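User: My notes are a mess, but here's the protein and zinc ion's SMILES. Can you give me a structure?
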Amino acid sequence: MLEIVSAFGAVKSALEIAKTAKDTTDEFKISTAMSEIMDKLTSAQSALLEMQLEHQNLIDENQELRKKLSQEAQFDKYSLKRTSSGGVVWQIKNDIAEYEGIIEHAICPKCRVESRLMPLDYYVTHYQCRYCNVLIPDQDGNQNQPSSSDWNPY
Ligand SMILES: [Zn+2]
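Assistant: No problem, the inputs look usable. Here's the predicted complex:
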């Protein structure tokens, strides 16, 4: 923001110098005015380049934040569930699974912390993540989960 003020100030000064020197015939005054105008325009150019760099940084940051928001939004489809053995998984909400026509499944809580959506494989006594290999006990079993390790809801 300061760059805009600086650039406008430099251009305004350059214009005032040009107006003052416009009608003079004195070569020395014209040369001095030209030098001052070039200095002011160089200052304005530097300020605008800084502003352009800052603008690009803001665009990059905005893209990164939008990406993070989008990644976080995919986790809204899940709710925290405690397994019968006291472990914790993120279970897809029933209405979401039904509405989107995807199989019920749980995702890895460890990977979720790192913004990675990893469906857990379900075995009779536990869940397991293929990415980080975390094991989450579920001794009583879960009738809603497929027992095959090859399923992928996506
Ligand atoms: Zn994991």
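Helices lie at 2-21, 27-74, 94-100, 109-113.
User: Great, I'll file this with my notes.
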